[in-house]
């Protein structure tokens, strides 16, 4: 995995958890709006909207650079529209990045052994 691919996966991973938190907070704000006089939906909606747009931009970049299959890319997109899906996406992306680093180090060690 090259540096740009690793950076794309890291960006997507770093925005996925905050996006999930903002989604959950938006849901709570929506319930509070309907049950009390508290209305934070406009503010929370804007925050969640910005984070979701960032997620989609980073998702497209990661899909392009990591050469994911359509199924993998669709999974990460579906996780972004589920209330707690961003947490699962972050964990899966972390595992994917760790295994890519391990594979890269193994290739480097193999190259050193053969030369």
Task: List the main descriptive attributes of the protein structure presented here.
single chain, mainly alpha, about 120 residues
What order do the helices and strands come in, and which of them pair?
Blueprint: H1 3-35, H2 41-66, H3 70-80, H4 85-114
What would you say this structure looks like, in words?
The chain is mainly alpha-helical. The chain has one domain. Helix content is 87%, strand content 0%. Helix 3 runs antiparallel to helix 4 (85-114).
Task: Summarize the structure in short.
The protein has helices spanning 3-35, 41-66, 70-80, 85-114. With 115 residues, the chain is an all-alpha fold.
Along the chain, the helix and strand elements come as: HHHH
Roughly what is the average pLDDT, rounded to an integer?
Answer: 90
Strand content: under 5%
Structural class of the secondary elements? mainly alpha
């Amino acid at each position: 995995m090259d540096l740009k691919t690793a950076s794309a996966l890291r960006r997507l991973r770093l925005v996925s958890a905050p996006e999930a938190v903002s989604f959950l907070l938006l849901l709570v704000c929506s319930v509070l709006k309907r049950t009390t006089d508290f209305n934070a939906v406009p503010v929370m909606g804007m925050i969640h909207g910005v984070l979701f747009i960032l997620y989609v931009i980073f998702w497209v970049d990661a899909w392009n650079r990591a050469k994911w299959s359509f199924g993998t890319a669709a999974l990460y997109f579906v996780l972004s529209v589920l209330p707690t899906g961003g947490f699962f996406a972050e964990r899966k992306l972390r595992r994917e990045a760790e295994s890519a680093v391990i594979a890269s180090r193994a290739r480097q060690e193999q190259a050193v052994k053969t030369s």
